[in-house]
Every structure is written in C-alpha cells, then in structure tokens.
Write a structure and sequence with these properties.
Layout lengths: L7 H6 L7 E4 L3 E5 L7 E7 L6 H7 L2 H17 L7 E4 L3 H4 L8 E5 L18
Antiparallel strand pairs: 1-2, 2-3, 3-5, 4-5
Bound molecules: guanosine-5'-monophosphate.
The site of guanosine-5'-monophosphate has 12 residues, from loops.
C-alpha cells in the first residue's frame, strides 16, 4: 500500500494537528491515544513514512529500526510501566483492524488488561 501523506499521524508529525506528546526523539514520536482503551494508552510512531510492519521491516534503515524499537522501550520506562507490566500491540492491515495507515505501536498499561484478544469476535478458528 502506498503511503498516504494526509493520514492523521502524518499531520501530527508535521505539527498540523496537535497531540498530547509523551516522548520524542530523532526516530519516533509518542503521544496519548485520543480514545484511550486503558488507563494508560500511548501510541509510538516512527518518523519515517511507513504504513505497516512489513513495510517498515523491509524498507527502514537499521538506524530507523533501532530507533523505533528503542523509543518504544524508552516510552514504557518514561510512563513507569516496567514494574507492573504493559501490553504492546500493533494492528496491521485489514484483519489486524488498522485504522491509521502510518505504522504505530500501542502501549497499554495502568491496570490488568485481561485476555490478549476479545472473546467472541472470531466466528471460527480452524485447528
Ligand atoms: P489502529 O486501529 O490503527 O491500530 O489505531 C489507531 C488509533 O489511533 C486508535 O486507537 C485511535 O483512537 C487513535 N487516533 C485516531 N485519530 C487520532 C488523533 O487524531 N489523535 C490521537 N492522539 N489518536 C488518534
């Protein structure tokens, strides 16, 4: 999928739309989700133009990959989540339920988060 420079996170990166910033470095920006699903719900995005994890892992430079991964760890630490734990999630593509076509990692924390996937959403799983 081609990168859409008008996606909402691209606008946030360009400063055209405000965000509740948690962390920023050369490689990544982190900000609180506008519709939080947990007491702490922060998004971490790479600064480069990548739609998905496949796109990022294939095309990003080693510095970009390292920078994004390190930023996620730094954000979790900055949010004080290391001791009690947290959930890291990336929705990719249609089946993943990705709404914004700029790669992002969700960090959820601040309370026990329950099952990994919501029950009852998958009609049938072939085993
Ligand atoms: P996805 O479903 O693509 O993994 O998640 C996109 C996330 O972006 C959703 O949790 C949604 O609430 C969040 N979001 C969408 N638009 C905005 C926005 O303008 N600002 C912020 N801070 N979060 C947004």
């Amino acid at each position: 999928m081609a990168y859409d420079q008008n996606n909402i996170f691209a606008k946030i990166l360009r400063g055209e739309i405000p965000c509740d910033k948690v962390y920023e470095d050369e490689w990544a920006l982190a900000f609180n989700d506008i519709n939080p699903q947990a007491p702490i719900h922060t998004l971490v995005i790479p600064k480069g133009e990548y739609v998905s994890w496949d796109d990022f892992s294939a095309m990003a430079t080693p510095d970009e990959v390292l920078g994004f991964i390190r930023a996620i760890g730094n954000v979790a630490q900055k949010l004080g989540l290391n001791e009690d734990g947290y959930r890291l999630l990336a929705n990719i593509g249609a089946n993943g339920g990705q709404e914004v076509p700029h790669l992002h990692a969700h960090i959820f924390g601040g309370a026990p988060l329950g099952p990994m996937l919501a029950r009852g959403h998958i009609d049938k799983i072939d085993t």
